[in-house]
Design a protein that fits this description.
By secondary structure, the protein is an alpha+beta fold. About 30% of the residues lie in helices and about 40% in strands.
Length: about 140
């Protein structure tokens, strides 16, 4: 298993970032390759993806900890992935979002294709960084 950690500072209150993070239907606006996303029950989400022209479906289980500060998730259908999003208030109007994703490189490559080895790690890190930047823009736009 490989682990990737990234973070980004957002010019918005933590509560606003938390609400956006929990709006599953907004995932296509900031998660690369997600065509459609919907909440299924209280703690489950379904995502339709289209990475590199291939259609894939992922189901995820979501759990929260730490009073609006920590969201944990793991896939229950699709490639084995899990992660956490931690929101750390910097002050009343600024928040740091820390993302941690754990994945099996072979399973990710099998499901989505793309490069292998270090090139795959770089590609995944770039994708997560891009998603965080898009999330920041979405949250700040609603501020």
């Amino acid at each position: 298993m490989s682990t990737l950690e990234e973070q980004i500072d957002i010019n918005a209150p933590a509560r606003q970032a938390w609400e956006c993070l929990h709006s599953v239907k907004s995932y296509p606006e900031f998660v690369e390759g997600v065509r459609e996303a919907r909440q299924e029950g209280k703690r489950r989400a379904h995502l339709d993806l289209e990475p590199k022209g291939k259609t894939r479906e992922i189901d995820a289980e979501i759990s929260d900890r730490g009073r609006d500060q920590l969201m944990m998730w793991r896939t229950t259908k699709g490639p084995e992935l899990e992660g956490t999003f931690t929101l750390l208030p910097i002050d009343d109007q600024h928040t740091r979002l820390q993302a941690r994703v754990t994945y099996d490189p072979a399973k990710v490559n099998e499901s989505f294709g793309g490069p292998k080895g270090f090139a795959q790690s770089d590609a995944i890190a770039g994708m997560v960084r891009h998603d965080l930047e898009r999330f920041k823009a979405l949250v700040e736009c609603t501020a």
